[in-house]
Specification:
single chain, 6-stranded antiparallel beta sheet
């Protein structure tokens, strides 16, 4: 991962790796779901898969490897889809990358009341202060969380904002995929 800081935690490095991968695909992409597995365990237990992923020569003994999952169904709301996921024990975390439009906090007072979800989405899309953002959020079974936010208008790896609490609702929805 060329632009990922080596001093970052394994979870931060995984989030930035996913952000860079998805960024390379361009904008206007569907949501993408990733399983996070322990890299050392993957190399030990699945050497053929590790080789296929280019991990056989890795020298680091710690880290997380993101593995993209099947495409998310386009006709199903994301929260409903996430409610159907169950992960095997080998998966130590998961991540989701999704694009959304957002408004600055100053625009909240302008939001018309009682709009349907579709009309609200259209109102946001038409708002002159809207910004397109790609959010990559990851959670671990043990409760760890990390996020990366990239604005379309500042589409550069040096402009990616990271932090554990940037998208708390999405992080909670992902964490719920690990609950029994």
């Amino acid at each position: 991962m060329s632009n990922t800081p080596m001093a970052a935690s394994p979870l931060t490095r995984a989030v930035l790796e996913i952000d860079e991968y998805v960024s390379g695909l361009g904008w206007d992409q569907p949501a993408r779901l990733f399983a996070l597995v322990d890299t050392a365990r993957l190399r030990a237990q699945e050497p053929a898969l590790a080789a296929q992923l280019g991990l056989e020569d890795e020298t680091a003994s710690t880290g997380l490897t993101p593995i993209e999952q099947d495409e998310i169904p386009s006709g199903k709301p994301l929260d409903e889809f996430l409610g159907t996921i169950a992960w095997p024990d080998a998966v130590v975390g998961c991540a989701l990358s999704v694009e959304r439009m957002m408004l600055p906090p100053s625009a909240e007072a302008q939001v018309p009341k009682n709009l349907s979800e579709a009309k609200l989405a259209q109102w946001v899309a038409d708002h002159p202060e809207r910004q397109e953002v790609r959010m990559t959020v990851a959670v671990l079974r043990d409760g760890g969380r990390e996020s990366a936010l990239r604005l379309r208008e500042k589409d550069s790896s040096t402009e990616v904002l990271t932090g554990p609490d940037l998208v708390p609702g999405l992080a909670a929805a992902l964490a719920a995929t690990f609950e029994d």
